[in-house]
User: Fold this.
Amino acid sequence: MNNKKKILVPLDGTERSMHSIDWLKNFFKEDEVDITLMNVIEIVLGNDKIELDQRYYSEKASKEILDKAEDKLHGYKIAKYHTFGYAADKILKKAELDKFDIIVMTKSTKRGLDRMIGSVTNKVVRNAGTLVAIIPE
Assistant:
């Protein structure tokens, strides 16, 4: 029986979001977790269509984000996943479908009470059916 924790790590490509990886490495050994790195590509539609070039470059950027994170987690079992859509909705759906034990995210750097942890993180915390760890910078 697999006793490893399943961890979902949504990343947006910022250095701030990479702090989740540092936290993971400090708290979990390689043999304790299976990690899925996730990037959601949010594309603004123009006239209800996505330009092919925009989609290609967005997918390429997403792959680079996930590859960079994977490099930082050398020795850990990693899966990478990217998708298109609204970040919070896609994170919640992935967490529910794949039955993750923990979602690890970083807080927002925006100011103000309403943006203390960020709108995506806030929605995930409020709606997740699992533990959500919010990592400070």
Q: What stands out?
A: The chain has four helices and five strands. The longest helix spans residues 52-72. Strands lie at 5-10, 33-41, 77-84, 102-106, 131-135.
